Amino acid sequence: MMTPDRKALWLLAAMTGVLGGCAAGDERVRSSDPIVAARQADLSVDDRVEAIQQAKADTESGRADPSILRLAMKELAWSLETPEMVRGAALEAILWQEGQEQDSLQIVREMLPTEPGRYAAAVLATAAADHGWTEATPALVRSLARRVPGVSDEERSEYKALRRLHPDQPLDRVALGVFLDPRTDPGPAGLALDMRVREAAWDLVGRLSADPSARAALLDAAPAADEEGQRVLSVLRRMRDELGVVPGGGEELRWALRLDSERAGELGEWWAQSSSAAARLGPEARASLALRHVEPVRWASLNRPEWLGAGREELLAELEERLRGRQVLPRTKSIRGTVSASAERLSTARDALAWGDVLALLVLDEAVGAAAGDLFEVADIDERDSTTEHGGMVWADARGFHVQHFPPRGSPTPDDRRFTAPREMIDFSSAALAHFHMHVTQWRNRDYAGPSPEDLDYAARFGRTCLVLTGVGRDVLNADAYFPTGAVVDLGELRRAPGGQ
């Protein structure tokens, strides 16, 4: 005897011509059966949506089997080949079905975290709010953490759903609760779905509490956490108390956890020096300190201690003096999007630079000159390789300033104007001063002198100070530093030493 699910599958197959004797022939027309019509890829989106609405009405009136409708609509909703409006209509048809609340909740929890369509996401989020499914909170948080260009958080359906589900809590606290206890099964070994939820939740915390002091205060008002949440919380409190920083996003969270894991090993001395340096900073410096500033602060404490006691305006004055007379070579072309050339001047970027960013620029200015030989070696490799851009990290350690080249991984679609940083480079760069990459498709490449929109997105995502070096003449590089805030400062030209290759 068939189970209800197997019967539904058999009936669906029969209705859609999967079983023998139901071939539709070469000429396709809209089927009189609305479920079959909804699945017809050659029909217009409007016709398919109308068919779904008719199938739903037939089910509600008792003229059709609700199990058949549910099975067909789930198949349509899960397929990314289905047009978004059809997927959304399919979800609308089943997420409010009586007696199917648990299955509908499972659909929301599984689909929403990675759902790319805004209409489908809105249907999923609205269903969670209408049903009062607080169990869907981690899925809503993970979805909201993914930015939608041109749409504010407050306009998002996930935001509105979370407000309805948690009317008495600020949403940064809701996101913090998910971060500390994601209530998500880790999944198969190595998948770490719970950690993905934590990172997404911390991304949202960073966005909703952009002020570092607000994030720092949240750590003391943290709700209950699972065992791993308690461990991560203790790491964040240690970062705050010893280094003066609280990570601002999911990738910075990874960075912080890696730093802490190396605190008793390879980075023991680095951590001690950084902690000592952070303790000497005044209120102005500490107010906006970020993870990317810790290494410049450590280096300055050992090599330019007077910088640690200087205010932002004093540091800016020194930087302005250093850059005076240097030629600024603004980017005039972009592969994807546009870049404002004037934004590369210090006079334009200064208001977007925190105290730590100005300090980082001073240290980078020293580093670029000291590591010029290393940088030209990577530039030569980049110029010879027409399949990708090359890059790596700038370091400041007992050997002085130096560069570590990280060749990018191969790509099935070679692109000489894109650098894809390998994951091991990002994870290995805990104590690096900056990430860098080259724009040396040819030595005369000045139209591309400066970061692209994708480069700026990279800095924002990973919370890093970055450097791009562009070939502007034979044996001449132009150096541009840029930050997660989008600020870009042209540091001028770097010339190969005479006799260098």
Task: Provide an overview of this structure.
The protein has 501 residues and is of the alpha+beta class. It has a domain at 320-495: 3-Layer(aba) Sandwich (Cytidine Deaminase, domain 2). It has helices at residues 4-15, 34-38, 45-60, 66-78, 84-94, 101-111, 118-131, 137-145, 157-165, 171-180, 193-208, 212-218, 227-243, 250-261, 268-279, 283-287, 291-303, 305-308, 312-323, 346-349, 355-370, 372-384, 423-428, 453-462; strands spanning 391-397, 400-406, 434-439, 466-473, 476-482, 488-495. It has a six-stranded mixed β-sheet. Strand 1 and strand 2 (400-406) form a beta hairpin. The chain is globular. It starts with a helix and ends in a 6-residue tail after the last strand.
Looking at this protein, list some descriptive labels.
Cytidine Deaminase, domain 2, alpha+beta, 6-stranded mixed sheet, 24 helices, globular, 501 residues, single chain
Write the SSE topology.
Layout (H helix, E strand, L loop, with lengths): L3 H12 L18 H5 L6 H16 L5 H13 L5 H11 L6 H11 L6 H14 L5 H9 L11 H9 L5 H10 L12 H16 L3 H7 L8 H17 L6 H12 L6 H12 L3 H5 L3 H13 L1 H4 L3 H12 L22 H4 L5 H16 L1 H13 L6 E7 L2 E7 L16 H6 L5 E6 L13 H10 L3 E8 L2 E7 L5 E8 L6
Parallel strand pairs: 3-4
Antiparallel strand pairs: 1-2, 1-3, 4-5, 5-6
Secondary structure tally: strands = 6
How far is the N terminus from the C terminus?
80 Å
Mean pLDDT: 89
CATH classification class of one domain: Alpha Beta
Radius of gyration: 27 Å
Strand fraction equals 5-15%
What name does the CATH topology of one domain carry?
Answer: Cytidine Deaminase, domain 2
Uncertain stretches: 6-27
Order of secondary-structure elements: HHHHHHHHHHHHHHHHHHHHHHEEHEHEEE
Sheet with the most strands, sense and barrel status? 6 strands, mixed
Given helix and strand content, the structural type is alpha+beta
Count of helix runs = 24
**Strand arrangement in the largest pleated sheet:** 2-1-3-4-5-6
Write down the overall geometry: globular
CATH architectural grouping of one domain? 3-Layer(aba) Sandwich
Helix content: 40-55%
